[in-house]
Amino acid sequence: MSKEANARIKINKLLENSGWRFFDDEKGSANIILENNIKITEKLLDDLGEDFEKTTNGYIDYLLLDHQGFPFIVLEAKKESVNPLFAKEQARKYANAQNCRFVILTNGNQHYLWDLKRGNPNLISRFPTPDTIEGYSEFQPDTKDLINEKVEDDFVAKTQNPDFDKDPRWRDSQTKQEFIFNSGLRFLRHYQLRAIHRIQEEVKAGKDRFLFEMATGTGKTLTASAVIKLFLKTRNASRVLFLVDRIELEQQAEKDFKDYLKNDFSVCIYKDNRDDWRKSEVVISTVQSLLSKNKYKRLFSPTDFNLVISDEAHRSINGNSRLVFEHFVGYKLGLTATPKDYLKKIDSEALNAKDPRELERRMLLDTYSTFGCEDGKPTFQYSLVDGVKDGFLINPIVVDARTEITTQLLSDKGYNVVALNDEGEQTDTTYTQKDFEKNFFSKYTNTIFCKTFLENALLDPITGEIGKTIIFAVRQNHASKIVQLLNEMAMQMYPDKYNSDFAVQVTSAITDAQKYTVNFKNNNLNGSGNFSPFYKTSKTRVCVTVGMMTTGYDCPDILNVVLMRPIYSPTDFIQIKGRGTRKHNFTKELKDEQQKKLVLNPDKKAFKLFDFFAVCEYFEMKFNYDEILELPAVSSAEGGGESPPVVAEKNHEYILPDPLKTMRENQIGADGMRIDRMYFERFEDVVKEDKEIQKMVQNRDLDAIEKYIVDNVFEKPNEYYNLPKLRDAAKVDRRLSLREIIEKMFGYIPYFKSKDELLEEEFDKFDSAYLPEDAYFEFAKNYFKSYITDAQFRDIIENKNFALLNTNANGDTFKRLSPELRTLIPEYIKDNVSINQFMT
């Protein structure tokens, strides 16, 4: 049988399975016409192009009719070996000639549904039924409405209820804002606004897939709420699907969306509303719920949702999860703090020639490609660095603690054990950090871990007890040991207070573990307010987990994150560290107003990251960020986040005491780590010892020294010194010049000035020359600095796109200046300041 005939048999079966009819029957008249003859007019022939068969008639492979018998969908079929997208343009012309809005492109194995009013063909897993596609046809989106919708900071807070603004309670705007805040509604921050505007820009450019890369704690759910409202309000979506990969995230999203959108749209969790989910505009589901028994294919049409949002997007496109995500047509938005870049450093042509399947799998798993960001840049990005700089997030205090044993396990040589085998012969076995609690066991090491944590943990500012903590263990048996040790120690520290509830294991082996995570967040795990009846905080202070409570777990009052296991994945490390980066005011849970006034430090200004396996050092100094990612192993089952059991050839139980060898707390500053400084010092030694340079120093010929270093020192074997590496080693928050480095080495300048010091110095020069009026002084300084450091702001000023100042963080500075200074400052900077030195 030919491949073309084989494809036709498959297509016929797929059409019948979806309710389309080749013949009249009891269900209705036939609604499929085969090889429909279409008169090819001169205009249509011109449209189809010279490569199309030049006959007076053309033939549509399958023409699908609506319930009234009018042409509805053009289906173009290709043989199995041909990409169905090859028929795209031909099918479009046929559809336009028949006044059809929809096109199906298929080769029997791969299918695309194309709504000609909406954008690009979408991959589908089955054909739509006549009823669902006709229902979808009533949906009439207009992207112009979406693009032109005015989105400001109160976009989510502003209800569509026309009576809301007429409420007599709104005597003034302050009262209204207080009500909005107390009701759970929120105002969008400047970066969240920018994210929404980026979607409008991308839709205008014809895009229908978007990726938001936003650090943990920066409000991805609030941003998603604004996106949902934008699409629903402008009728560019009639229903939205929000996909998560864990039950606790499903419940968390429902709560947040109901808070943000309850006045405008209905929200439900699918599994709680299986019979009437269609009544809701926003449907939330775990990927696993829809995968179970292939519900996504059996119970849902590809057209049921016009916008699909994937939380933790780097996970939702892996394995079977991707089938759910791609089943639905429409706009796609991915949210993640840690996108996976499987195409980085890959020679696509070479890999395709070697193994096309591996290249295809890399493209499928690559977060950027999946969401239409083939250049490796997300639609919108807001990092932890941005969040800390803007004052929305906090960095950790790293507590690097190592015992005698872990110090050896972490060393290049590892920990060597000499023992006798069954034959009485002496054998040597070397263990590394990867073996800890897998085939190298030490009760005393675990004891020191727990003791060190308890003695140095940040305390709850209201009660003085151990602050809420998440501990990450090696595997489930290790988690059990840690929980037992902590509860024994807590009994000694706080007699009769916790009764074995101080620490709880939260892993997949524990019944109701998912519920524990929710209760811990809501401050009622095993009770609350154990130390004060006026303060609601979880009686359980520590959750010990392995792979749960990592991605998307929102618990802002976490004060300690503890790594009692090594971590080798940067994605895992970023997610785990992110559990502590959110800010929090602890008096929020204090019911007594008088006591609130007595709390000296109510705000969370730091959290501690306890690192017992040099994880921070590894990612700071040893991890190769340019390494090509390995593809994950293909598995028939989706993992549950826990480490698989490890069967070791040899196990060793260490039974001697293991004292703490080193412990240091370090809030990493501008000077960086010692290894960075050593690199700079080695370069300094090489330069100072060079005889030719010594002669130039005597003549104070800095130009000659600079040229000599470039020609004779940079990029030579052994060290391969170069300017980018030296800049990185110097740990200065701006781009140093080689001249500055030379001046520092030979004592012409005492130190490298920071970006802000240099900005102050440059502004002082301007101030001395022009002396702006006192009323404008601070605004002039802010404008001066912003013009230099904010490329977007500078571009707005240069191109006179002043309307964009409304969405720029520095826009207010411009508005408050006199017209003369608005012009004078940029002209002065262009003539007198090198902007390049302020870049990072």
Automatic annotation (TrEMBL):
Broad EC category: hydrolase
UniProt GO molecular function: ATP binding; DNA binding; type I site-specific deoxyribonuclease activity
EC number(s) given by UniProt: 3.1.21.3
Keyword Hydrolase: yes
Gene3D superfamilies: 3.90.1570.30, P-loop containing nucleotide triphosphate hydrolases (3.40.50.300)
A single GO cellular-component term on record: cytosol
Alphabetical list of Pfam families matching this protein: HSDR_N_2 (PF13588), ResIII (PF04851)
Residue span(s) of domain Helicase ATP-binding: 201-357
CDD domains recorded: DEXHc_RE_I_III_res
Cleaved signal peptide residues: none
Native organism taxonomy: Bacteria, Pseudomonadati, Bacteroidota, Flavobacteriia, Flavobacteriales
Protein name, entry field: Type-1 restriction enzyme R protein
Gene: hsdR
